[in-house]
């Protein structure tokens, strides 16, 4: 029997969904709910239909009412004010720390400060000062380059908002080999996302490219066309189903893969 719904908590722009237990009738998709998590009470939005699981992160306490939404709005203003105060304070004491954002629990008793730093830093010396200013217990959470992009939200080279800040639940492992298979230039500017890491979409498209490349000649293979033109494969065009050949006559031609056969079988 379904016992959990998947809820998006408002931690920056991160799209991660958390399993939340519920009692009675399941809240509908799109419903704002108050949840109880290890941090305390947090506002979230139901994003998927109920399902059965034994790995709940927290529980749905109630459907959010107008009072809850108004409180969250006021807390967002406090978070923004605290973020800029922190930026100013840490710029003097810990200039290597970049403050990304803050997030209060619904009761205002716990605040999470998200930050990034190139090297490990000791924040123990500023916790008490921040707690006094924030009027809440303070928790610091470090974010790596990819996590920063998911938290803040950016535009990808496709012109759309980055996948990691809209729908991705975990980062896809991408490799240089995937870029090679997709015939992309191995320039960091061309194959890296806003986070500076390899584009996650390389991993999404790679299975399709592998299928297309399966029956194509390898790069540098010597082949001949049905018209008897022979040469070396210098480029594969898997989406078009063609290859570029550097011919024995010194020219470059494009030929469909179906029109090619290995040179050593030329009779």
UniProtKB/TrEMBL annotation:
Pfam families (UniProt xref): PSP1 (PF04468)
Gene Ontology cellular-component annotations: cytoplasm
Domain PSP1 C-terminal, first and last residues per copy: 58-143
NCBIfam families membership: RicT_YaaT_fam
Protein name in the entry: PSP1 C-terminal domain-containing protein
Organism encoding this protein: Oceanithermus profundus
